[in-house]
Amino acid sequence: YTYKKKEKYDKFTFLFNHRFQDYKNWRTTFEVFDQLYAEKYPFTVLVTKAGGDRINMINEKPYVMIKDLPTKQQYYDEIQRCHCNTFNSQHETFCISILESMFFGLSTIVPNRTTMPELLGKDNWQIFNTENEQKEKLIYLIKNKDKCLDYGQKNVEKAKTFNVDDYVDELHHIFDSSI
Fold first, then answer.
1. Residue 175 in this model has a pLDDT that exceeds 90
2. CA neighbours within 13 Å on the CB side: how many for 86?
3. Pairwise CA distance, residues 176 & 157, whole Å
4. 18 against 72, higher pLDDT
5. CB-hemisphere CA count at 13 Å for 65?
6. Please, are residues 112 and 89 in contact by the beta-carbon 8 Å criterion?
């Protein structure tokens, strides 16, 4: 991958680069987006093409833009053009999609469960406890793009502290020791 800094979209753009599996709680995430849209907040949700037939369920939403990004270069170029990644996953072991977003300077509004406090830091403003709190944080970022960019820059610095190779090695060690 060749890093070429890309400008953010003009319109506030959320990235949804998660699978459409039930444990990802994707329906709840899109219910929050539906509420924001109904309240006339200006935004787009960029959905990376994943999820099979379930992607058709959100394809009709007026705020959704689905992109097929077959190469890593295209995928990473699009990630950095977005402003924020959010989701409501119930179970994660590490969440590469959030870490990718952090590396590319997106703010990340994520639940206070699974590994999210470890990724962002336990007292990080970007962590929410309820869907209502999530919605309020998303509204704040839509209205305050400069703060969104500040959180994104903090995420870049935090992401640099993680070594994915070490994580995978440790995970492999845990699996080996449990067999």
1. no
2. 30
3. 32
4. 72
5. 13
6. no
pLDDT greater than 80 at residue 157? yes
Type of residue at 95: C
**Count H helices, E strands: the chain?**
8, 6
Supply 101's token pair: 């977003």
Phi, psi of 65 (to 5 degrees): -125, 115
Residues 86 and 116 sit within 8 Å (Cβ to Cβ): no
Neighbours of 61 (CB within 10 A): 15
pLDDT of residue 94: 60
Residue type, 76: Y
| Contacts with 45 (C-beta within 8 Å, 6 or more apart), sequence order | 13, 14, 15, 16, 33, 61, 63, 64, 65
Residues 4-19: pLDDT tens digits?
778 999 999 999 987 6
Report how far residue 4's alpha carbon sits from residue 36's, in angstroms, rounded to the nearest whole number.
Answer: 32
